Fold Molybdopterin-binding protein.
Amino acid sequence: MNPNQSITAALLVIGDEILSGRTKDVNIGATADFCTDLGIDLKEVRVISDETDEIVEALNAVRQRYTYVFTTGGIGPTHDDITADAVAKAFGVALPINDEARAMLETRWKTTGTQINEARLRMARIPEGADLIVNAVSAAPGFRIGNVHVMAGVPLIMRSMLEALAPTLQTGKKVMSETIRAAVGEGTIGGPLGALQALYPDVKMGSYPQMGTSRVMTELVLRSSNEALLREAAAKVREMVAQEHAKAGITPPD
Amino acid sequence: MNPNQSITAALLVIGDEILSGRTKDVNIGATADFCTDLGIDLKEVRVISDETDEIVEALNAVRQRYTYVFTTGGIGPTHDDITADAVAKAFGVALPINDEARAMLETRWKTTGTQINEARLRMARIPEGADLIVNAVSAAPGFRIGNVHVMAGVPLIMRSMLEALAPTLQTGKKVMSETIRAAVGEGTIGGPLGALQALYPDVKMGSYPQMGTSRVMTELVLRSSNEALLREAAAKVREMVAQEHAKAGITPPD
């Protein structure tokens, strides 16, 4: 870990089922949490359809731009699983049956009594030059080629693949955060918060109104990789919020 | 409605809180459902950070490409709410206080006894030439400029804005779907399903393994805007699934 390096990432969620609304994605949130925990700055997510050209275009746009690219979806055994084909095309490499991947699958299939067939063998097709990402759940591996990490779309398998590749990733400056709850609205706090943000440009201050609560609530989230600055800015924000509470004659929230 | 027209859309989800994992997005799924219900083909979603240049770049990339663009997030009263600024910049127009928006806010603020201040008035800044999108929940409006529809990020407000703008949207060919459940795995069904997909190119066939079920289950989803073709293809897929069940000596699922 280089404590001064900024490590960035993009996620491509590949699948018509997300875009049609049939499946509600949970991999974006899981990947975002994963990146934040490792000090990797997730800069962008794209959800795209199961179309080779769309995948190639999105992949080429983001892999030049960020330290890492993660993809989820489209590596199963059916005709609509075309992620490996698209990745091979984007990198200009062949997509042969990979012996190691085939062996992983055959070992699993032996214990489950599963027949080998052409559809299942699709899952052993890995772009030339790629390393495998172990799949602890259902054996069919993901793979890494260049800075692109190709994972399954099934959330349980995707998360197990993220865990498997975590030790192989460079981690960046760890970003710390402080959350401050205010019992006044964003409109009340917006002015003074903006002034504090201007004073602390290296501490990113976000403001999030809470809906469906019994009283007005705004959550202020401060983030920075500079811990001393973060603590200092948070103290100033707390002071400002206390003043706003006092002005409004409000009991502070817990 | 022109029954032969293909209407496409992209969604931009704007917000650091989604990329950090702090907030788990639900607007993608809601927008996907909304589009599918109206026969609008949601082609792409991007989640991007609260940075003006990122928003402008993404907006300009997608607004040329699709019939409609929807955005969620970044239209509140605090300094980190910069979506209106970025949209005005992308369209090269000014961002004045809009009288109609100001009146909507003032009417609401009168009933709630809320003080007008600079932060709150940020929410009345609307790009020149834009129409307002009514916000039934908290009064601060969204807006439409060109083919871009700018909405709040708070899910409840976002959904109310989607409902408000639904009657203003052109709707496309309605896509129908049939779901067929198979009690065999994707690897078993992949070959014959791929053959049927090749026979019916205008019926999109997706295959989704079910995890965490007590028996192996694959859900096959067929989609088409041609109802007769969809029914015909679905009958063929059902027949194929019944054969696979029979081969494996399996009782069909409900």
Remarks:
- Chain B has a mean pLDDT of 92.
- The beta strands of chain B are 7-14, 40-48, 68-72, 131-133, 142-145, 148-151, 176-182, 204-210, 217-224.
- DSSP finds nine helices and nine strands in chain B.
- The longest helix of chain B spans residues 227-247.
